[in-house]
Amino acid sequence: MNFETVFSVVNALVMPQWLLMIFAPYWRWTLKLTDSYLIPVLLAVTYAFYVIMSLDDLDFMSFSTLAGIKQMFSAEQSVLVGWIHYLCFDLIAGTWIYKDSLTKGKNRIVVGICLFLCLMLGPIGFLLYWIIRKLARNQAT
């Protein structure tokens, strides 16, 4: 499979879980999917495959400088691997937000906004949810 096809497949793979967490948070299939971590595991397997395939070209010292990272990400396969990394960890963070919000009874619209931001801008969605969570805890005491 070429890199463009893999890119399209992994992008499509994450969308059902994001959409279900945002628009059908209490549906039993949403709960089952998020409990299984199936999609992050599939992303992790894909990630591992492409990392293993590029081990010969991988220079771990590249991770120590911005110039090294820039050089590393000049290769199409490295960009794909980096993107899969983002998709996987953003989805794991989003799943945590989703599950935590269910246990704490958070407003679904606010959580939906946090999840959308987590999908689009990972750490910003996580940060917003974390702030909301902390503010709610402080108001309760």
If you had to describe this structure to a student in words, what would you say it looks like?
Helices cover about 80% and strands about 0% of the residues. The chain has 7 helices and no strands. The longest helix has 29 residues, at about 75-105. The radius of gyration is 17 Å and the shape is globular. The termini are far apart. The mean pLDDT is about 95.
Helix content class? over 70%
What is the straight-line distance between the termini? 55 Å
Total domain units: 1
Radius of gyration: 17 Å
Strand fraction: under 5%
Count of helices?
7
- Structural class of the secondary structure composition? mainly alpha
- Profile the largest sheet: none
- The beta-strand count equals 0
Tell me the overall shape: globular
Which ranges are low-confidence, i.e. pLDDT below 50, for 5 or more consecutive residues?
none
Q: What is the average of the pLDDT values?
A: 93
